[in-house]
Each structure stands twice: as C-alpha cells, then as structure tokens.
Design brief:
29% helix; globular; single chain; two-stranded antiparallel sheet; 4 strands; two-stranded antiparallel ribbon
Length: 99
C-alpha cells in the first residue's frame, strides 16, 4: 500500500496531476522544501507549480525503489525538463535562449 501510494505521489502527481494532492496528503501535511515549508494539499499544489514553472516537458521517473521499511520509504528518482529560465541564481542557459 505504501509503495503504491508513493508511486502515485511521484509518477502521477509530480508529473503534473496536481489534483491528486487532495487524495494523497492530509490537511495537516507539512513538507520541507529549500527555503520554505509547505502546508496542506493547496500548499503542495503551489509548491509543485512553482517547481514546474521554470521547465517545459517535465518528466519525473522512478530509478530505484520504492523501498519500504515500516513507515519509511526510500527511492531514487529523476526530475528532468527543458529549462526555460527564471530560477534565481541559476547559471544555466534556458533552452529558449539557445536558439
């Protein structure tokens, strides 16, 4: 059950099906992102939108796992997309400026 839920979290929700947040997290959800805490399903949707915004063609893949041990889950995954610019401090050229 935990592994299946994690796969939905990663492979469906993180790949853009943001409406799943209301099925997968409780109103008391707290996530710790760099520079901010995320609260509840609506906060998670906003964090996901912000994470996707600088990229086109986002694809999240599961590389290893999930490995479940009690109430803990571990996995290795990859987030990829064509960078469109807009990340503060990023030195990479956006694909839109490459020609």
């Amino acid at each position: 059950m935990i592994a299946e839920r994690y796969e939905r979290w990663l492979l469906e929700m993180w790949n853009g099906d943001f409406k799943l947040t209301h099925d997968l997290v409780t109103p008391g959800f707290v996530g710790h992102w760099p520079g901010m805490d995320v609260h509840g399903p609506d906060g998670l949707v906003e964090a996901l939108r912000q994470g996707h915004a600088p990229f086109d063609d986002v694809k999240v893949t599961l590389d290893v796992g999930p490995i479940v041990d009690g109430d803990r889950v571990a996995a290795r995954w990859t987030f990829s997309g064509a960078y469109q610019g807009g990340l503060p401090g990023a030195s990479a050229a956006s694909t839109s400026s490459l020609g």
